[in-house]
UniProtKB/TrEMBL annotation:
<comment type="function">
    <text>Putative pheromone receptor.</text>
</comment>
<keyword id="KW-1003">Cell membrane</keyword>
<keyword id="KW-0589">Pheromone response</keyword>
<keyword id="KW-0472">Membrane</keyword>
<keyword id="KW-1133">Transmembrane helix</keyword>
<keyword id="KW-0812">Transmembrane</keyword>
<dbReference type="InterPro" id="IPR004072">
    <property type="entry name" value="Vmron_rcpt_1"/>
</dbReference>
<dbReference type="GO" id="GO:0005886">
    <property type="term" value="C:plasma membrane"/>
</dbReference>
<dbReference type="GO" id="GO:0007606">
    <property type="term" value="P:sensory perception of chemical stimulus"/>
</dbReference>
<feature type="transmembrane region" description="Helical">
    <location>
        <begin position="234"/>
        <end position="258"/>
    </location>
</feature>
<protein>
    <recommendedName>
        <fullName>Vomeronasal type-1 receptor</fullName>
    </recommendedName>
</protein>
<dbReference type="InterPro" id="IPR017452">
    <property type="entry name" value="GPCR_Rhodpsn_7TM"/>
</dbReference>
<comment type="similarity">
    <text>Belongs to the G-protein coupled receptor 1 family.</text>
</comment>
<keyword id="KW-0325">Glycoprotein</keyword>
<feature type="transmembrane region" description="Helical">
    <location>
        <begin position="45"/>
        <end position="63"/>
    </location>
</feature>
<feature type="transmembrane region" description="Helical">
    <location>
        <begin position="6"/>
        <end position="33"/>
    </location>
</feature>
<feature type="transmembrane region" description="Helical">
    <location>
        <begin position="264"/>
        <end position="284"/>
    </location>
</feature>
Amino acid sequence: MAPRDLALGMVFLVQTLAGILGNSSLLLHYLILHFTGCKFRLTDLILKHLTVANVLVILSKGVPQTMAALGMKHFLDDTGCKLVFYVHRVSRDVSIGSTCLLSVFQAISISPTCSRWMGLKVKAPKYVGPSTILCWILNMMLNVMVPMNVTGKWQNNNITRKMDYDYCSAISHGKITDLLYIALMLFRDVVFVGLMLWASSFMVFILYRHKQQVQYIHALSHTSSPGSRATQSILVLVSTFVLLCSLSSILQFCLAFFSIHKMWLVKASALIAGCFPTVSPYILMSYDSRLPTHCLPWIIAAKSSVL
């Protein structure tokens, strides 16, 4: 194995282990909060679904990519490739949808009680559960065609138009068809990102106005309220997502439009795609003031593994 391939494999391995450890720590955190009787926030259910989606993204993308980078490229047959790609696409889309739902519901939860949002703020809690379940169902249905466009790397050798993903292959249906499919995916992502930016701008405005109104309290105490810290964590999370999603979309556009299928570009796209599921649990845990003291050793160990 070439030193460059070994180094890349180690990078994927560290990213995968850090992501699994971080998301496992976050799930353990919510489990402890449940058994200790801590009151859950409006957005906690969405965060649980986001964490599950992140774990599936890492298992379906990070683990196979790590194995392929370390030289083990014959571990998936045709059925395995179809299953892995389908799970990755569904979990990736659920992660995007959950992040969008997270920002929108948090914006609703911190809206002023005396505003026109009052009616929506009262009804919002009962829509959280159905919204997250609907997100899973819709993405499972919308991605039902993905397995048909994926094949094992050493299967169907009579198919000439393939896009090599190191351990599996995607069947190309022509440049126009591929571009149309990428355009539809990017349009959906742009809509979700637009909603996130709108909700984030609203939250920044609310936080700024609240700070102005209670400035004299902040002069006495430098601690932030739990609601403020939760909003700040979501703002950081959305900002990180928008940045990484933009980079990933640019690489996907290059792969589809310019017909550039160099392996380094495919691996760079996979590495960036795994960044958000890896860093998001550490962002959320660092801002959560409800973290139990007896859970801290596990969380600190998880954070130190990333550093």
